[in-house]
């Protein structure tokens, strides 16, 4: 009976060792999963930061070129206003003389469609 009892004891010990190994394997698996999750989160954060930097860089390039464009338009507008003002001052006197001459030199004429009703 002792040999039978020893056999049962050995089986129980083997079962306990197997159970301990399973628990240890589960713990290692849990640790690996947790570590993999942390690594994935770190990689995602790194990727997100990289994409945000690229976006900000592209945005600054585009907005910078728009700022330059608005500056160019402002300069062109100022130049055109200056040209129109100079042209106004240059031709104002001649135009006023022509206009006044037309107003002062009235030549009374009868309109061609006028019918004499007398």
UniProtKB/TrEMBL annotation:
Signal peptide: none annotated. Pfam families: V-ATPase_G. One of its GO terms (molecular function) is ATPase binding. Keywords: Hydrogen ion transport, Ion transport, Transport. InterPro entries: V-ATPase_G. GO terms for biological process: synaptic vesicle lumen acidification. GO terms for cellular component: cytosol; plasma membrane; synaptic vesicle membrane; vacuolar proton-transporting V-type ATPase, V1 domain. PANTHER family: V-TYPE PROTON ATPASE SUBUNIT G 3, VACUOLAR ATP SYNTHASE SUBUNIT G. Belongs to the V-ATPase G subunit family. Subunit of the V1 complex of vacuolar(H+)-ATPase (V-ATPase), a multisubunit enzyme composed of a peripheral complex (V1) that hydrolyzes ATP and a membrane integral complex (V0) that translocates protons. V-ATPase is responsible for acidifying and maintaining the pH of intracellular compartments and in some cell types, is targeted to the plasma membrane, where it is responsible for acidifying the extracellular environment. V-ATPase is a heteromultimeric enzyme made up of two complexes: the ATP-hydrolytic V1 complex and the proton translocation V0 complex. NCBIfam families: V_ATP_synt_G (TIGR01147). This is V-type proton ATPase subunit G. It comes from Chrysemys picta bellii. The lineage of its organism: Eukaryota, Metazoa, Chordata, Craniata, Vertebrata. The gene is ATP6V1G3.
């Amino acid at each position: 009976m002792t040999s039978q009892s020893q056999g049962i004891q050995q089986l129980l010990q083997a079962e306990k060792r197997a159970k301990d190994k399973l628990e240890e394997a589960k713990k290692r698996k849990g640790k690996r999963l947790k570590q993999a999750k942390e690594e994935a989160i770190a990689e995602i954060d790194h990727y997100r930061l990289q994409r945000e930097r690229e976006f900000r860089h592209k945005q600054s390039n585009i907005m910078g070129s728009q700022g330059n464009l608005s500056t160019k338009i402002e300069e062109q507008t100022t130049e055109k206003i200056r040209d129109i003002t100079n042209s106004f001052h240059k031709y104002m006197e001649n135009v006023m003389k022509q206009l006044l001459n037309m107003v002062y030199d009235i030549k009374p004429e009868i309109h061609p469609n006028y019918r004499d009703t007398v």
